[in-house]
Amino acid sequence: MKNFICTTCGVQTESSATEPEMCTICNEERQYVSPAGQKWTTLEEMVQSQTYKNEIVPEEEGIFAVSTSPGFAIGQTAYLVQGKNFNLLWDCITYLDPKAIGEIKKRGGIDAIALSHPHYYSTQVEWAEAFDAKIYIHEDDRQWVTRPSDRIVFWSGESVELTEDIRLHRTGGHFKGAAVAEWKTGNDGKGVLFTGDIIRVVADREWVTFMYSYPNFIPLPASTVERMAGQLDAIPFNRIYDAFNRIVKEDAGAAVQRSAKRYVAALSGELFET
């Protein structure tokens, strides 16, 4: 019995004797099945290949970017956030080996893992078991969990406090249960928001965007983006980290608001003529 991993999205399945017929995550309009066809691997095969390594890079006080080199599957970055006597892994990556476990334990380990949305569930159960951590997923995304575990906490409502300075907020948008993480005391007390790609920092780091599907270029409705912007306007934060280590370094709250207005104007035909 093996826990197979889809090589396109990097999400691990529950144990089975044979490869699944399809990946639930990829076989849906927000993701895609590789043009080369559905392919699978396992974490054991990845480790044995000696192809990959995890890089744990300090970004600023209390924040480490965690990524895999060479890139695997979607290639997202996770973040180790060192709160007040509480370490959070925000989002997750597929690859995990003893060296990475040791490096993270040197930095205090992981008390909890929180996920923005299903594309980054990856090998979250492997990580949770390695660090004896709970996994926080909004209950609205329960159906997308491909490897069940007693470590998963399905939280409900619009927000949940993990510790005195870290709170999760359900924004919806990309997925119904899509969430962001607010670190209140981060960035010297000015606040940091970790957004996965629920809010994606664009090439011009002064702006962000919002999408239903990034690989398939499907936008969100204007009304959804307006609702998200209204919710985020009530959360104080100065900096944003997204899923691909793009950062809005200053006045990120204002960047979200002006970006939402531009997005809505574009969809409504008010931003340009073409």
Largest sheet: 7 strands, mixed
**The CATH H-level homologous superfamily:** Ribonuclease Z/Hydroxyacylglutathione hydrolase-like
Strand content: 25-35%
Helix content: 10-25%
**Name given to the CATH architecture:** 4-Layer Sandwich
- How many structural domains in the coordinates? 1
Structural class assignment: alpha+beta
Rg over CA atoms, rounded to whole Å, is: 18 Å
Q: Using the alpha-carbon principal axes, give the shape.
A: globular
CATH C-level class: Alpha Beta
What is the β-strand count? 19
Give the helices and strands as they follow along the chain. EEHEEEEHEHEEEEEEEEEEHEEH
Q: Report the uncertain regions.
A: none
Number of helices: 5
Strand order of the largest sheet: 3-4-5-6-7-8-9
Q: In whole angstroms, how far apart are the ends?
A: 56 Å
